[in-house]
Amino acid sequence: MMHLAVLLLVISYHGTNAVTRACPYKPADIVFVVDGSGSEGLANFQKQLAFIQNFTGQFEIGKNQTQVSLVTFSTDVTNEFNLNSYARKVDVLSAIGRTNYPNGETHTHLALDYVRLHSLTPQNGSRTNVNKIVIVLTDGKSNEEALTVQAASLLKLRRDVSVIAIGIGNAVDPRELLAIASNKNHTFTVTSFDLLETIHQDLTDTTCHTCGQGPADIFFLLDSSGSEGSVNFRKQLEFVNTVANEFDFGPDTTQMGLATFATGVSLEIPITRYHTKSEFMQNVLRVLFRDGESNLHLGLELTRTQLSDKILTVKSHRFAIILTDGRSLEHERTVEEARKLHMNGVETFVIGIGNDVDDMELRDVASDRSHVFRVNTFDQLDNIHQQIVDRICAEKTVFPTTTTTTPKPTTHTTMSPTTTKPTTTTHKPTTHTTMGTTTTTKPACGPKVADILFVLDSSDSEGPENFKKILDFVYNFARQFAIGVNNVLFSLITYSSSVNVRFYFNTYTSRNNVLNAIQNTSYIGLGTNTSDALHVARTEIFQTQHGSRPNATNIVIVITDGRSRNPNATVVEATLLKKTAEVFSIGIGPEVDQHELSAIASKPSYVMQVNSFELLHTIEGKITEAACSGRI
Ligand SMILES: *[C@@H]1O[C@H](CO)[C@@H](O)[C@H](O)[C@H]1NC(C)=O
Ligand SMILES: *[C@@H]1O[C@H](CO)[C@@H](O)[C@H](O)[C@H]1NC(C)=O
Ligand SMILES: *[C@@H]1O[C@H](CO)[C@@H](O)[C@H](O)[C@H]1NC(C)=O
Ligand SMILES: *[C@@H]1O[C@H](CO)[C@@H](O)[C@H](O)[C@H]1NC(C)=O
Ligand SMILES: *[C@@H]1O[C@H](CO)[C@@H](O)[C@H](O)[C@H]1NC(C)=O
Ligand SMILES: *[C@@H]1O[C@H](CO)[C@@H](O)[C@H](O)[C@H]1NC(C)=O
Ligand SMILES: *[C@@H]1O[C@H](CO)[C@@H](O)[C@H](O)[C@H]1NC(C)=O
Ligand SMILES: *[C@@H]1O[C@H](CO)[C@@H](O)[C@H](O)[C@H]1NC(C)=O
């Protein structure tokens, strides 16, 4: 007897990484707001607590590090503990564990008001100059939606507060979730409480602002003209270091350079010179005050050269931060040079200090109105550093594309065709933690053979970049399996206005060829003829002459970002296909039609939705588990 014997050793990619990245030296105040309404039940409530404990576990907790508070709500609000209630991680974790299930209605607005008025106050431990993050977990609609929306708006009026909303289960209202969250990238949905862990990493990234990820090049241009004097000049240098301290340094992450301008311009620290933060910061403090006129245009020209493709060979986000206390000598040339800088894709921030600045000029120099900052004195520079850091972090996007364009390097696949015994009992993943590295051993995927067909939407609504993300997902999924005639076979079709069979089950015999073919799939664009794709799946793909095996489980995974042209025909074809195969449907983004997704899938639990293409990988584990489980 042959077994599909695949042993998956997934070295969890959220082990210690999260802690060694941007989070530890970027302290945060995190308030969890947890739905304890009657709809979810005690067991699910406790799953939320377990998730929060796990999530909190990765942060350094302390007065100078991350602080955590917990508020529960149902009919009323209960403040479980404040940001400053506990200074040790063990105490926070056990306090989370002690939380009682309130069991009542869903008065979300009361909780949001409470957080704004009481949790995020200095008296209760909220710190200035620290990111404040409110994470709301809910399993349904609030009782008074209008009040919820209003309370959320008031909370979000505080510019230093980010609100993340997590919806759990099928009763969640996506509109309400969006109204609660600071922006779309701050919303997460999972179809069940058991899946909360699937968003662990993305939630961590969002929480930490992932400023350390994705390369950024930041160039500082400081005014060294006679008007300010060396004491004030020194304050600019300190400001540079305060900002620098918030970033991860290195050629693959953030590089920084610095120049000063006065009568002439002087390149103090070329952008590629230092690869460690401490070297950079030490040398910043050695920069000398020059004295002279204010030839800002020369500084802008040098900034453009430093942030050009000639010097920066890696594609990166490029930022210029310009500090000045006066007006430039040659206004016209300043405006002209600023324009060239913007044309080169450099996000330009400008900070005007004191009363002698020309506000119009500042606006011309900045690449966006919102990139202009004003302070009255050099001493106030420190007050705005967090805003600038946050802007830069926001520009760098919450989810770096690097995680989706390369296969996860930390996921190791080991195929062991002979040593894995087919397991008969239902098996839970076993987890053990060694030296901070979390290792999850997934159960073997067997003892079944499977024919897995991917049906990919290649319509014009998504664009080639997003299509590539779908391919990355398929690739990462497929590479977990032992591919072959005694194990798992893959076939792939794409559809837009017409259907393209990319390969049948028997087109390729080697694993490598299958994986290559997945990556090589071209994007089409045009309409969304889902019904035709499902028709081809049934009548053409699952046929013996195309390698479909009678002894295999037939699985179809449909991935779409939109609604089909002909919904009625789609439903008819889906019904027929489901007699042949187990069908999963994955919807990406806000345009998907939930009813259609449900109509396509064999069971409600086979419907999966993610908010964006970047989040596709969060459901990989669930699909694998479902595809591998003996239940099919
Ligand atoms: C499944 O069927 C194929 C041909 O249809 C055969 O080659 C293979 O050995 C069979 N596998 C098992 C596990 O029965
Ligand atoms: C957190 O969850 C992960 C799975 O996502 C698990 O491997 C890990 O052991 C959990 N950590 C704790 C402290 O429960
Ligand atoms: C927090 O930081 C301050 C100033 O840097 C320091 O004096 C204090 O000892 C620190 N407290 C803890 C608990 O580390
Ligand atoms: C601080 O938290 C307590 C509950 O622990 C609350 O009663 C009080 O109103 C809060 N303080 C402020 C200023 O909101
Ligand atoms: C959300 O993320 C996407 C993709 O990374 C990005 O393009 C977009 O600007 C982000 N939106 C907001 C509001 O941050
Ligand atoms: C979908 O494909 C079928 C068969 O190729 C065709 O008859 C139909 O017109 C197509 N529909 C659209 C909207 O392109
Ligand atoms: C990739 O596709 C192109 C045409 O689309 C084809 O010429 C090439 O052979 C393919 N490569 C692989 C490895 O399949
Ligand atoms: C789809 O079916 C519904 C009811 O079954 C019908 O009202 C509607 O007209 C149909 N739409 C099309 C485009 O055929």
From TrEMBL:
Domain (VWFA): residue spans on this chain: 29-203, 217-388, 451-623
Lineage: superkingdom: Eukaryota
Signal peptide: 1-18
UniProtKB keywords: Glycoprotein, Repeat, Secreted, Signal
Compartments, as annotated in UniProt: Secreted
PROSITE patterns assigned: VWFA (PS50234)
Broad class of where this protein is predominantly found: secreted
Residue ranges that the Swiss-Prot or TrEMBL entry lists as coiled coil: none
InterPro entries recorded: ECM_Assembly_Org, VWF_A, vWFA_dom_sf
Region (Disordered): 403-441
Gene Ontology, cellular component aspect: extracellular region
Alphabetized PANTHER family for the sequence: COLLAGEN ALPHA (PTHR24020), PH DOMAIN-CONTAINING PROTEIN (PTHR24020:SF20)
Protein name as catalogued: VWFA domain-containing protein
Source organism: Potamilus streckersoni
